[in-house]
């Protein structure tokens, strides 16, 4: 197979694709000379829109491979029409993202992100313990379950889970977990909420104007999924009006542009530059496509 890498380092690391570099395959990258009509596989990551125009340039394409999980930049319907198989690596970054979620929770809960301000001002750092909080997890897939496991280790014993793809008995087979039949149950009853769902038309503004009105005044919001899931203008209002609340964001609406300045200036909001999958272990796993390893 002829495999074309459509993004350069560091987005796609050819060193992690050595399992494909054999007599059956040839890997080409940007700048190499090759005939598009001979390409069997394209590998993309974050910057390429895989739409009909791009697919038209590869007449005999068999696979579109995405390093990572999110498929919002790939036209799945168009690929299906053309008989092109889409491959991604669900679960490959689950441990990495879950670790970052815990990092963000601890940082915001204990105000660790603030600059050192002298021992005489230590009461400014008054925070919250994790034990005793009611945690809502929206999306109980690979990452959601890893977050649950880690928080349980911190002594959390009250979890409310919203995932329309799971049955009540499936969720409640996990220790300390209760099933939320409606997302409103999460927003009303939880003082810590972590989002682990893809960005779709149905999940855009999942936490919007109506939902923000349901939140407790000290709710901690964690979003490591996609920026459009939370309405950022309403988030800014909520955090500004409720100083006991907090947010940890690894994603935002305007990516790859910088977040809104209003978010960056909020003392109760911590933002990291979409680094959920930025561990060596996750990087290697995200480059492994079992469909191609034949």
What does this structure look like?
This protein has helices at 52-56, 76-81, 94-110, 142-153, 168-171, 183-189, 209-212, 232-241, 261-265, 280-286, and strands spanning 2-5, 26-28, 41-44, 63-66, 85-87, 134-138, 158-162, 177-179, 192-195, 220-223, 246-249, 269-271. With 294 residues, it is of the alpha/beta class. The protein folds into two domains: 2-89 and 280-286, NAD(P)-binding Rossmann-like Domain (Rossmann fold), CATH 3.40.50.720; 94-271, NAD(P)-binding Rossmann-like Domain (Rossmann fold), CATH 3.40.50.720. It has a seven-stranded parallel beta sheet, with helices on both faces. Strands 2-1-3-4-5 form a five-stranded parallel beta sheet. Strand 6, helix 4 and strand 7 form a beta-alpha-beta unit. It starts with a strand and ends in an 8-residue tail after the last helix.
């Amino acid at each position: 197979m002829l495999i074309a890498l459509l993004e350069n380092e560091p987005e796609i690391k050819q060193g992690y694709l050595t399992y494909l570099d054999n007599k059956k395959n040839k890997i080409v990258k940007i700048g190499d000379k090759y005939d598009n009509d001979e390409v069997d596989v394209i590998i993309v990551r974050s910057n390429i829109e895989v739409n009909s125009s791009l697919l038209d340039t590869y007449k005999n394409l068999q696979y579109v491979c995405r390093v990572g999980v999110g498929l919002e930049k790939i036209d799945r319907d168009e690929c299906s029409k053309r008989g092109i198989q889409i491959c991604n690596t669900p679960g490959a970054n689950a441990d990495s993202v879950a670790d970052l979620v815990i990092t963000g929770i601890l940082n915001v809960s204990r105000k660790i992100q603030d600059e050192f301000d002298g021992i005489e001002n230590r009461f400014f750092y008054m925070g919250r313990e994790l034990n005793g909080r009611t945690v809502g997890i929206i999306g109980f897939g690979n990452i959601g379950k890893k977050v649950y496991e880690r928080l349980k280790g911190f002594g959390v014993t009250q979890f409310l889970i919203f995932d329309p793809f799971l049955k009540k008995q499936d969720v409640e087979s996990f220790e300390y977990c209760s099933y939320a039949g409606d997302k409103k149950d999460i927003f009303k009853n939880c003082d810590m909420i972590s989002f682990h769902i893809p960005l779709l038309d149905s999940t855009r503004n999942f936490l919007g104007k109506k939902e923000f009105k349901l939140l407790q005044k000290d709710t901690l919001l964690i979003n490591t999924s996609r920026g459009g899931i939370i309405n950022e203008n309403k988030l800014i209002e909520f955090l500004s009006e409720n100083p006991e609340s907090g947010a940890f964001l690894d994603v935002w609406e305007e990516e790859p542009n910088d977040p809104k300045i209003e978010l960056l200036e909020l003392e109760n909001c911590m933002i990291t530059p979409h680094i959920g999958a930025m561990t060596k272990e996750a990087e290697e796993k995200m480059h492994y496509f079992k469909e191609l390893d034949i």
